[in-house]
From TrEMBL:
Residues 15-83 form the YlxR domain. It comes from the Bacteria. NCBIfam families: PRK09190.1 (NF006622). SUPFAM superfamilies: L30e-like, YlxR-like. The lineage of its organism: Bacteria, Pseudomonadati, Pseudomonadota, Alphaproteobacteria, Rhodobacterales. CDD domains: YlxR. This is RNA-binding protein. InterPro entries: Ribosomal_eL30-like_sf, YlxR, YlxR-like_sf, YlxR_dom. It comes from Pararhodobacter marinus.
Length: 207
């Protein structure tokens, strides 16, 4: 298992990216639909009605799809592409990951803080280790993702991770087995690709 990857491989439908032409599992793509006003709408949760138009979870690919009018070509109809569509997708994905972690916290499936996370890892309660991208590398190396079937998320800042737990900042967090874990990992993997990062960055601070 690689850091920032999925919990496990699984069979899932594949779709073709309209920007790169590559076919890949749907989990690595952003779904878009054409709204009632013919405007391209990011469907982060994959639940909006209409024919899906898929683009790799990559800023350059999304920007290219808009610039080269690939959405219109794929939709076979005139469409309007919002300015800064890649920024919009990034912000929606960020909010989505934070909201999913917050749901896990409310369900008792997520904890924050070095001691609690260490306990969950020691007792093999944790399936996913989450650490802030701007937390100190020295502090983060004291914890390791679960060896068997576990995952690591390191694309959120301490402030963003903190907002999922109702705090100003959080450096270390963990998700329990089952529940929302697979969804959080999948969405976080997309966000990491959008941000061009998989692990963390040097900074200071530990909770």
């Amino acid at each position: 298992m690689t850091r920032g990857g999925r919990i496990k491989d699984r069979d899932e439908p594949e779709r073709r990216c309209i920007a790169t032409g590559e076919t890949q599992p749907r989990g690595g793509l952003i779904r878009f639909v054409v709204g009632p006003d013919s405007q391209i709408v990011p469907d982060i949760e994959g639940k909006l009605p209409g024919r899906g138009l898929y683009v790799s979870a990559d800023r350059a690919a999304i920007a290219q799809a808009g610039k080269r009018k690939l959405f219109a070509r794929a939709a076979r109809a005139p469409v309007t592409v919002p300015d800064g569509l890649d920024d919009l997708v990034h912000d929606l994905l960020t909010r989505r990951v934070i909201e999913l972690i917050a749901l896990g916290r409310k369900a008792g499936q997520a904890v924050a803080g070095y001691e609690k996370v260490r306990d969950w890892l020691t007792t093999e309660t944790a399936e996913v280790l989450i650490q802030a991208s701007d937390g100190s590398e020295r502090g983060k190396t004291k914890l390791r993702p679960p060896a068997e079937g576990g995952s690591y998320i390191g694309c959120l800042t301490a402030e963003e991770l903190g907002s999922a737990f109702g705090r100003e900042h959080v450096i270390h967090a963990a998700l329990a087995y089952g529940g929302l874990s697979s969804r959080v990992v999948e969405e976080a993997a997309k966000l990491a690709r959008m941000r061009g990062t998989v692990g963390g960055a040097d900074a200071t601070g530990e909770d």
